Model the fold of this input.
Amino acid sequence: MIQLIDLKKQFQSVKSEILQEIEHVLDSGQYILGPKVRELEKSIATKLGVLDAVAVGNGTDALVLTLEAYGIGNGDEVITSPFTFFASAEAISRVGATPIFADVDPVTYTISPAKIEEKITSATKAIIPVHIFGQSADMDEIMDLAKKYQLIVIEDACQAFGATYKDRAVGSLGDAACFSFFPTKNLGTLGDGGIITTSDLELSKKIRSLRTHGTSKKYYHDTIGYNSRLDEIHAAILLILLNKIDSWNDKRRELALRYNQALSNATLTLPVEKNDRSHIYHLYCVGSEKRDQFIERLTKEEIHTGVYYPLCLHLQNVYAHLGYKKGDFPVSEKLSETLFALPMSPFLLESDQDHVVKVLRREVENSSDH
Done:
């Protein structure tokens, strides 16, 4: 089977380094929020060009804690994309605010600034743009809107570690940004993890308190917080992978270019990378009205695919009370019905990629004959 994301090969490539680091952590006697976590926070802040980074339990917690640290809650509205993983909206609901959806751009699949502006009300407090599949949203336009309406911008950068926008790192563009270290992410560990990046030191101070039960001094609690901490083993693993991430992202981009060239006339909708940003292809998604037919053929050929995302957030049962209906966000809905992901990872062999392309092209020819 050609894997969608070959995690086994990825982690096998650094297995000896990981085992050595785990041994060091075991010998240290420090297992939660220790020196490795502090080193990771400092390294990521430096790499992304921000003043601080705060490691937490996962990407969802990163969003929740950031919203809470900004005081967003009951009666507030936060605008985000309906075409993303559930956590982008779930975090808004978790703090008691209401997610307000705005449709996405048909080319980049990221939230449309023009659609955001249509949704702004007196209750709007923040915007969460999602850098979907590894490409940045239109951040200059979004930040201009935020300035105009005095809104907070929290980047959902969970799929885009290493991506850039106008030569600036994703994660340094908004007021704060949230990353996930789930294993399938470009920078992922052997479990859960997340981090918040910001140059607002007052914000990062609040988040540090929230992540450890609302305390700044052990056993003295200033607020109701959470238990959302990154452990030393995951931090040690991530420090190893942080040294590999640029070359791994370069390989993803190289493979994406090969896909683009080989499938350019195959009647599939291919991902488009805007000139002013670098897409790091967390996922390589193509579109077709005959998605199910393509997936069935690829599966028969032992090629793994994925559908991201089969049901937009505004149509999820949990948000029925918000009153959205099918047709409200036509671009997002069309994407949910047509997009599917092809195998993509730094360890995808070009010979395997060529086989994927061959099967796709053959299926295109077969479908056009009928």
